[in-house]
Specification:
This protein folds into two domains: 3-47 and 158-253, no CATH class; 74-137, no CATH class. It contains nine helices and eight strands. The chain starts with a helix and ends in an 8-residue tail after the last helix. Helix 5 (155-191) crosses helix 6 (198-208). Strand 1 (69-72) and strand 2 (75-78) form a beta hairpin. The radius of gyration is 26 Å and the shape is elongated. It has a five-stranded mixed sheet, covered by helices on one side. It has a three-stranded antiparallel sheet with strand order 2-1-8. It is an alpha+beta fold and 261 residues long.
């Protein structure tokens, strides 16, 4: 059976998961990497989009078309006679203001804004507001252009490296999760004795993790606020409840261990 069929069967069939217990450890390890790869796609797309958006916004505030400015001592200084400056490019509002006339409340109704205000950077991304103080940073627009030119050219490579590191981290966490699930399996085996060795339980644990992992990825992608709407750690509790239920259903499909005569 192909590894893709194993993935689809693991989404709905406790009987097939029980049969997978005879598979080799190496194949199961490969399956875990595939599971993490599939369920990481939405997060990878989101992260790539965020990084690219940040790069595009940085290019906008470094454009030659906007006035020169410098940042130092926790505030911004805009070219004389140009502040406050406001323009709109590709749907994003760009603001430079060292007078204090523009406040965060003035852009609260906007969707996409990059504003260099008198004492902070304000970014509105699809209505979500983030603010960052200048702190002790000191630079001019020209210096920032020179410093970021090579960085922006290598941004795709940096993005790929970040995604690879996140994938490896997620894979490590998933392997730990499989070991935790196998621990639950050992406890359940005592309640309902079956002819299982630990390697069988570990292999089944990888496939039992499939549906909870997919559901978790979908919730994070489409309903990221679900923990806020319902209660804290809802996703975490839902994951382990699903694991417990699926493991019980899988054990019910296996032959019971015959009592010794």
């Amino acid at each position: 059976m192909s590894i893709w069929k194993s993935f689809f069967y693991s989404l709905y069939s406790p009987t097939m998961i029980g049969r997978f217990r005879m598979q080799k450890i190496g194949r199961t390890i490969l399956y875990i990497f595939l599971l993490v790869l599939i369920t990481s796609i939405p997060a990878a797309i989101s992260i790539s989009s965020t990084i690219n958006m940040a790069g595009e916004r940085l290019e906008l505030v470094l454009s030659d078309e906007i006035p020169d400015y410098s940042i130092g001592s926790g505030s911004i200084s805009v070219e004389e006679g140009s502040s406050p400056y406001m323009t709109q490019t590709d749907g994003t509002v760009i603001i430079l203001d060292d007078t204090g006339e523009v406040t965060p409340d003035d852009v609260a109704g906007e969707t996409d804004v990059t504003a260099l205000l008198d004492d902070r950077v304000l970014v509105m991304d699809e209505g979500e507001q983030n603010e960052f103080a200048y702190g002790e940073f000191s630079f001019t627009k020209e210096e920032l252009q020179e410093a970021t030119a090579s960085f922006l050219e290598l941004l795709p490579a940096y993005t790929a490296l970040a995604l690879l590191l996140l994938y490896l981290l997620a894979s490590g966490v998933k392997f730990l999760g499989v070991f935790a699930i196998s621990g639950i399996g050992l406890l359940l085996k005592k309640i309902r004795p079956t002819r299982l060795q630990y390697r069988h339980i570990w292999v089944m644990s990888a496939y039992i993790a499939t549906l909870p992992t997919v559901v978790g990825a979908l919730l994070d992608t489409f309903i990221p606020e679900i923990d806020t709407w319902l209660f804290n750690d809802f996703s975490f509790i839902l994951y382990w409840l699903m694991v417990l239920v699926i493991f019980i259903l899988v054990l019910r499909t296996l032959p019971k261990q015959k009592p010794h005569q």
